[in-house]
Amino acid sequence: MVGNIPAEKEIIFIPDRNLALYVEKQTGRELIKWDGYCPTHDRIGRKDIEEAKRRHPQALVIAHPECLPEVQEIADGLESTSGMIRFARESDAREFIIATEMGLNHRLKKENPGKEFYSPTQKAVCPNMKLTTLSKAIETLRSERYEIRLDEETRRRALKAVEAMVSYT
Predict the structure, then answer these.
(1) Has this prediction a pTM greater than 0.85?
(2) I need a labelling partner for 35 at 20 to 30 A (CA). Which of 18, 52, 66, 143 fits?
(3) What value does the mean pLDDT take over residues 160-166?
(4) CATH number, domain 39-130
């Protein structure tokens, strides 16, 4: 998306400073970075990766670009969540250190039964992601208990922003 924005336009990149640094490296564009970050990804450090590599020397390291730059630098692959899934599926490697929320390892193992997936730290747990469960989502849809109401002006402005964002892809 950043590559589709004219070079003379400044870009304010939110919500993640680490992802912004990754995007700058990929695009060569200087971004105005908001100092936000994902606390789960920020808990994964270089020492965690190095220790995991000592325990699993054959494992490839796949990191999410919201990880700290020190983790990005030593990763074998920097991928979005869907990219991590694809990378693991397509790789001939049998072992992987997954530098993202550790819940992804369950899905990776299920979809790749002959491969092993390791978390570099037990601290890579997102408490917010754990709040949403399939049973809670189903119950919410069935009961129609939570309704979000917006006035028409806010709805129109939000739609305009989403349409503008999507037009850059």
Answers:
(1) no
(2) 52
(3) 85
(4) 3.40.50.10800
